[in-house]
Specification:
This protein is α/β, with parallel strands linked by helices. The chain has a single domain, classed as Peptidyl-tRNA hydrolase (Rossmann fold, 3-Layer(aba) Sandwich), CATH 3.40.50. It contains 6 helices and 7 strands. The chain is globular. The mean pLDDT is 95.
Length: 184
Amino acid sequence: MKLVVGLGNPGKEYEKTRHNVGFDVIDAYLKEKNINIDKTKFNGMYTQMNINSEKVIFLKPQKYMNLSGEVVRKYVDFYKINVDDILIIQDDLDQQLGKIKLKQNSSSGGHNGIKNIELHLGTKNYKRLKIGISNNKNVDTKEYVLGKLNKEERKILDQSINKCINILDDYFEMDFDLLMNKYN
């Protein structure tokens, strides 16, 4: 069983912000497949489907970003998911807007959601799909990541989110090292 987690903050006020790109990727992928998130459990909205004869859970934690690990841990324990079968989709301040990078076993880079996941899983050895949101050093980091994008930025990010649909399709078909080689 695989667990694909899109990181973001719950609530209308956070929709379409830089920090919610993980939610945006999950939503775009499921929309492409004509699937809705139709269940809630353990402070998470999720859906479950079979891909290549394997169960896959798509999860959007409904606690704030810095508490995401609590939600992920509950799903891992309840469904007995191996850490190697977890993919976290996150925003990344350290990459230019729209740049996509696949990683495994890397540092949090100061991302509070990732720090909390590491804390609750006791490891950083899970897979990650990172989408760049750039960084504006002239704006407070919290304000920046929780801010809305302008039209031009949104267009760039939407193109990356659409590319993530293909990456996720390949994720379910390919070895992760090959996937990283293909897209990084």
